[in-house]
Design brief:
The structure is a single chain. With 178 residues, the chain is an alpha+beta fold. 47% of the residues lie in helices and 18% in strands. The protein has 5 helices and 5 strands.
């Protein structure tokens, strides 16, 4: 018996209708993108549609179908990501914090900071960070200055009275301008 949708191919197994499964999987993955945002699932859905199309035209075995799915998903991901980035340009740019701009900044201590060991926390740029003291124990609620940054850990030191006063004055000045 020949397949109705694919003449010339015997319909003796479910693998002859695998393209239906691929098309259904592709559509499900593309629809899932609306519920699970992240812009990656849609690329796998498009890859599934491509694999289903190739299977419908050429009746490949499961190994080749999976290879086509992975390769086409990867190709669509590479070219589609660039296309989407150009289609939806960002109005903001991300500039990583430069170490030179961070050193000497005054921060709030939110968990006691110990000399030479992790466990302390500071609040800086709206986020909590691991901190290590370079000179003495710094209690929670104190102000300290950043000495250096080591990956995701800040090394801090006790801020002098003058540095703390200058920091408080700058905060007061910003609040007055608002």
């Amino acid at each position: 018996m020949e397949c109705i949708l694919n003449p010339g191919v015997p319909c003796d197994s479910i693998m002859n209708y695998a393209y239906v499964i691929w098309f259904a999987l592709g559509i499900v993955l593309i629809v899932l993108e609306f519920f699970i945002p992240g812009v990656f699932i849609v690329f796998f859905g498009i890859g599934a549609l491509v694999a289903g199309g190739f299977h419908y035209l050429f009746n490949f075995g499961i190994g080749i179908q999976l290879t086509i799915w992975i390769a086409s998903s990867f190709a669509v991901l590479l070219f589609g990501a660039k296309f989407l980035k150009d289609l939806f340009p960002s109005d903001q740019s991300y500039e990583p914090t430069m170490i030179e701009n961070v050193n000497g900044r005054i921060v709030s201590v939110i968990k006691n900071v110990h000399v030479g060991k992790k466990g302390g926390r500071i609040s800086f740029q709206g986020t909590d960070w691991d901190a290590i003291s370079t000179d003495s124990e710094i209690p929670k609620g104190s102000l300290a200055k950043i000495v250096m940054r080591d990956n995701l850990t800040y090394h801090i030191a006790t801020a002098s009275d003058g540095e703390m006063q200058a920091h408080l004055n700058s905060i007061k000045k910003v609040e007055e301008e608002d």
